[in-house]
Amino acid sequence: MTPNTFEALPLAAPIQRALSESKYTTPSPIQAQAIPHLLKGRDLLGCAQTGTGKTAAFSLPILQELHADPRPLRPKSPRVLVLTPTRELATQVGKSLETYGKYIKIKHALVYGGVGQRPQVNAMRSGVDVLVACPGRLLDLIDQGHINLSSVDFFVLDEVDRMLDMGFQRDVQRIVALLPKKRQSLFFSATLAPAMVNLAHTILVDPVTVSIAPETTTAEKVEQRVCFIERENKRALLLKLLGEQKPGELTIVFSRTKHGSDKLARMISKDGIAAEAIHGNRSQPQRDKTLARFREGKIPVLVATDVAARGVDVKAVTLVVNFDLPNEPEAYVHRIGRTGRAGATGHAASFCCPDERDYLRDIEKLIGNPLTVDDDQDWHLASLAADHLRHGSRSNGVAKVKQGNRSGGGRPSGRSGGRPASSGGSSGGGAGGGGNRRRRRGPRRASA
Ligand code: AMP
Questions:
Q1: Tens digit of each residue's pLDDT (9 = 90 or more) over 118-135
Q2: Which structural domain, as residue segments, surrounds residue 120?
Q3: What's the gap in Å between 48 CA and the centre of ligand 1?
Q4: Stretch 85-103: mean pLDDT, rounded?
Q5: Beta carbons of 307 and 280 less than 8 angstroms apart
Q6: If DSSP codes are grouped into helix, strand and coil, which group holds residue 275?
Q7: Is the Cβ atom of 342 under 6 angstroms away from ligand 1?
Q8: Are residues 169 and 132 part of one domain?
Q9: Is there a domain that residue 25 lies in?
Q10: Do 93 and 236 belong to one domain?
Q11: For the residues 54-81, what does the mean pLDDT come to?
Q12: Which residues of 308-328 are buried (b: 16+ CB within 10 A; e: fewer)?
């Protein structure tokens, strides 16, 4: 039986108190399925993307263990190691430990690159219970003798698919080789491709497998649509969608390149909507500052590259715009997972111009469904939509049809209107045509 309340889980009172203060009442499916096994000391292979509550699924058993069996801190030698692909995700895990561990005496440290190492070295010198680290800097500090992994008895690998995408496989293997053989290990990935499962089996012993179907979970919570459009019209459509967001609603815009995200942020700001970019060329303090401002709603639009957006967990994100389609289809699933967090409904609009059709085809193949075509937007490129329908999607699924409500008040075009790919053609405007229809809601600026 899987527990349907947190009280039903054998978690200590101080943890229960922190959970109820965070207004968590019901464990998410991954929490309900994983936590009982983890509390019994089992290894775990978890297939779940961000937004499913997987951070709490591993943080709560860690906190329980540290609370039930407190030990003196040992310099340089953490008891728990959480490995994450990016600094943002590491920070996020650190925040979760602080939130859920508010009433427990634990110490944690974050170790990642892009910032000076001295504070990290100092934190390790005085000892921590939990170390949350990215592979590169962790190995650096190990090589310099500042960290020793021989006391780790709880090991978490988070977002392993991303870690491998980022080329960390050898680093991960080196780190695993430094851990004691006797330990509890958890392995989380959004996808379980054969390479991932093979790697998992070199790390885990007799694991419980918990799979929270990522694509369907995402598809249910996030209304996804594709906007066929000429590249030169993308900016106008973006401004229009941003202008249609309600006050307090946050948007993340994805760009494939660092340079492109800077340019977009400037363009959006010039249009009167505060926007900032985060990407690998910005320093960690700059990225933290931008994220904090975004979280507080001071900047309603964040422009990001894939790597920088990992671990960004902001509940008020209601819209994700894929200004460029990602060239790896898995990145699409991660991107749209930035909205529709923790049960909320989100929207994702993906712009597809003629030279991105192959990327769209790969995405549709991965998620097993064609995306709903938004032929209601002013720059709808009917010829491309028709071409994609004829040759494009290799999947057999039927596109989801959203019920239209084109007259005022409701959601903008593609959110309420849109047609399945199978209806073909444009409702007007023609190839590349448009910018001349009546606008349903007053964007901050008509952007044709
Ligand atoms: P994660 O998948 O770990 O990135 O978590 C996604 C979001 O869900 C975070 O904002 C968490 O604070 C939130 N969350 C996790 N578990 C629960 C829960 N059981 N009830 C409500 N919110 C949750």
A1: 999 999 999 999 999 999
A2: 6-212
A3: 12
A4: 95
A5: yes
A6: strand
A7: yes
A8: yes
A9: yes
A10: no
A11: 96
A12: bbbbbbbebbbbbbbbbbbee
Token pair, residue 245, equals 């967001």
Nearest-CA residue for ligand 1 atom 5 is 53
Q: Establish whether residue 337 lines the binding site of ligand 1, counting it when its CB lies within 6 angstroms of any ligand atom.
A: no
398 in contact with ligand 1, CB cutoff 6 A = no
Greatest Cα pair distance, the chain, in angstroms, is 71
Assign residue 47 the CATH number of its domain: 3.40.50.300
Question: Is the CB–ligand 1 distance for residue 29 below 6 Å?
Answer: no
pLDDT single digits (tens) 415-434: 333 333 333 333 333 333 33
Query: Ligand 1 centroid vs 93 CA: distance in angstroms?
Result: 11
CB–CB of 124/146 below 8 Å?
yes
For residues 182 and 230, membership in a common domain is answered with no
Which of the pair, 198 or 109, is modelled with greater confidence? 109
Q: Structural domain tally of the chain? A: 2
Q: How many of the other CB atoms lie within 10 Å of CB of 385? A: 26
442 occurs within a structural domain: no
Would you say 112 and 42 are in contact if contact means Cβ atoms under 8 Å apart?
Answer: no
Q: Specify whether 78 is located in the same domain as 197.
A: yes
Q: Is the CB of 56 under 6 A from ligand 1?
A: yes
* Residue 56 alpha carbon to ligand 1 centre in Å: 7
- Say whether both 43 and 149 belong to one domain: yes
Which of 6, 31, 35, 55 for mutating ligand 1's site (highest number of atoms within 8 Å of CB)? 55
User: Does residue 95 sit in the same domain as residue 157?
Assistant: yes
pTM (whole model) above 0.90: no
172: nearest Cα among 160, 183, 180: 160
pLDDT band at 177 (very low <50, low <70, confident <90, very high): very high
285 and 180 belong to one structural domain: no
**Across all residues in the chain, what is the average pLDDT?**
83
Q: Which of 192, 212, 232 is the last residue of a domain?
A: 212
Of the three residues 183, 212, 241, the one that is the final residue of a domain is 212
Ligand 1 geometric centre to CA of 221 (Å): 14
Residue 77 pLDDT exceeds 90: yes
Q: Are residues 111 and 224 in the same domain?
A: no
| Pairwise CA distance, residues 128 & 76, whole Å | 8
**Ligand 1 and 218: CB distance under 6 A:** no
